[in-house]
Design brief:
- By secondary structure, this protein is an alpha+beta fold.
- Helices cover about 35% and strands about 15% of the residues.
- It has 9 helices and 10 strands.
- The strands form 2 sheets. Strands 4, 5, 6, 7, 8 and 10 form a 6-stranded mixed β-sheet that branches. Strands 2-1-3-9 form a 4-stranded antiparallel β-sheet.
- Strand 5 and strand 6 form a beta hairpin.
- The longest helix is centred in the C-terminal third of the chain and has 17 residues.
């Protein structure tokens, strides 16, 4: 038995669906029958779809906790050729925030709650309890891997796994196509019981606003979506504290307008973010 298969069986027993990866850290290709999804494919993890192929097919959808499938003759060649091991985070009920460089790690340390971490070749995987939609390139050097995606298995990691925060979910939210009328005021409602920021110190808010400005300024494409996701991330972290002021929103709007956004679009994006978060 190969070391990858042995680890895969251990993961399956723990409720983590594994799959073999070939050289280059990519899944094995579909069999001839399933090539180019001619079989109909497997659209999502809850409803596998019409394909019942016993081979290692359809990338992340091949991941399984069934030891009979993992040990089947159809998978034997793949295990012999496997150069690594992957798993389906969403199928295990977790989300992987893939941080691929030093800038991304700094952002995560300043923005995200601590959780279990796993070292990678160029950065870290931060793993949270809870599944969500996967999305690549949500910010420089940051991918989100959960439902309908696979991640490399690089070990159990260290630290206590914490609940998936709203700020991570917000990164994968696309701006709504239907825009509601903009409110007359952009003041964020204060929390009941006081307006003091509950996130460490005022310096934390100032650093977050500066990073949000930088994220907008450094965007090279998808400016509309970047502005909306940035507003959503700021509001998901500070929107209920009462700590955001008109000066903070003016800084964000100025950064967006410097990238060519109109004042109307900035207002619409802010309003949509407030609506999405129920503020």
């Amino acid at each position: 038995m190969s070391v990858h298969l042995r680890t895969a069986l251990e993961l399956a027993a723990a409720g983590v669906p594994p799959l073999p990866l070939r050289a280059g850290k990519v899944p094995f290709g579909n069999c001839r029958t399933c090539a180019k999804n001619a079989c109909g494919g497997r659209p999502n993890m809850k409803t596998p779809g019409p394909c019942t192929c016993p081979d290692v097919c359809h990338a992340w959808a091949a991941a399984t906790t069934d030891p009979n499938v993992l040990n089947s003759p159809q998978w034997a060649t793949a295990w012999r050729q496997a150069a690594g091991l992957g798993y389906h985070p969403g199928g295990a009920g977790v989300t992987v925030v893939d941080l691929d460089n030093a800038q991304a790690l700094t952002w995560a340390s300043d923005t995200l709650p601590a959780t279990r971490t796993v070292p990678t070749t160029r950065g870290e995987h931060w793993i949270y309890q809870g599944a969500m939609r996967s999305a690549n390139g949500v910010r420089p050097g940051v991918d989100i891997k959960s439902s309908m995606a696979y991640a490399r298995w690089l070990g159990p990691g260290t630290g206590r796994m914490t609940a998936l925060p709203e700020v991570v979910r917000a990164l994968a939210v696309k701006e709504p196509t239907t825009v509601r009328p903009a409110p007359q005021s952009l003041t964020v409602p204060a929390r009941t019981g006081g307006g003091e920021c509950r996130h460490r110190t005022p310096a934390y808010l100032n650093r977050g606003i500066a990073m949000a400005e930088q994220r907008i300024t450094e965007a090279r494409a998808g400016i509309h979506a970047t502005v909306y996701r940035t507003f959503l991330a700021v509001l998901s972290t500070h929107g209920r504290c009462g700590c955001l002021t008109d000066a903070h929103t003016a800084r964000l709007f100025a950064a967006a307008q410097a990238k060519g956004e109109s004042p109307r679009h900035c207002t619409d994006a802010w309003t949509n973010a407030l609506t999405t978060l129920g503020l």
